[in-house]
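queue> holo job accepted (fe (ii) ion)
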Amino acid sequence: MNSMNMSRDIIVDWQAQHEHLFGQHAIRLQHRLIETGLFTRESIGRLIERCPKSHLGLESVSFEGDVHKRIYGELGGASGLEAIAAIEKGSMWMNIRRVMEWAPEYNDLLNRIFTEFESRMDGFKTFKRNMGVLVSSPNAKVPYHADIQGQSLWQISGVKRVFVYPRSDIFMPSKNIEKILLRETTEDMPYRSWFDEYATTFDLKPGEMLTWPLYAPHKVENHDCLNISVTMEHWTKPIWNSYAVQYGNGVLRRTLGLKNSSTRDHGIHVYPKAAAAFLWKKAGRQIEGDVVKTRDFRISSESANGRVAIS
Ligand SMILES: [Fe+2]
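queue> job finished
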C-alpha cells in the first residue's frame, strides 16, 4: 500500500443518503480494495500459505445419485497459487477466515475501512469486526440463508450474482431467525423458487461492494469464472441488542411456550448485563471457524477437477 493510496477513501462513491440506507437497504458501492495490492493473485496465494490450518476452510459437494453431501478438503502440499488454479478449474470454495487475527496488514485495512464508515455515519460504532477472503470456483453457489451480524461482500475478481430477499416474515419467519441464533439449524433455510421474483439481484463486479439489511435472506451464484471476494462482518449496539432480544425470545418460546414474543430491540426487553455477557461469549464462539476433523479431499492442481479424494 503506498502513501498516496493511504490518503484516499476506500469507498469511492459515498453520498449523504447512504448514511440512512446503510444496514436498512441493500446498497452497492464502489471500493478501492484492489488498489491496496493486498488482493492480487500473488498476495492471496501468500495469504493461503500463511493461513493457520484451523482457519482455512475448503469445501466441495459430492453427489451420490440424487443426494449431495458437503465434503471438506485440505491444502496438502499445494502452494497458494496452485490452490487458486485448482479452484479455478474445479468446483470448490475456500474460506480464508479471520484474516485480521493473523495478518496485521489486513487488520490495518479492516480498521481503516470501519474508521471510514464510522466517520461517515453519526453514531455508527462497530466492534467484533471480521474479515475473510473467499476464493470460489466458476458457478459455485451459496444457498439461501441469513446471517446474525452486519455483513458486506466486496468483489475483487470475477462476477457473482447476489439475490437479496425482503426482510419479512414471508421470506424469513422470526422463528427461523431464532433457530439460526440458537444454532439449531445450519443456516440453510426453507426456500421456494418463486422467492426469486421478489429478490433484488446484483451482478457484483470487481471493485463493487454490497451490504444488505440485518437478517435479510440472500443467496449467491458465481458466474462462469473464478471468484475472489472479501467478506466482512461487524456488530453494532443495535445489532447486538437485536441478537439478545431474538435469542431471548427463542429461549422463552422454548421454555415457556410463548407465542407472541416482542422483537423490540430496546427498553426492558433487552437482557440485563449479566445475561448479555453470557450470550456475548456464545456469539464470540459462534463466529470462530468450524473445526473439521475429517478431510475428504486434497487440492491437486494437476487433477482435472482440481482435487483428489483422501481415502
Ligand atoms: Fe451470508
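queue> The first helix runs from residue 3 to 6.
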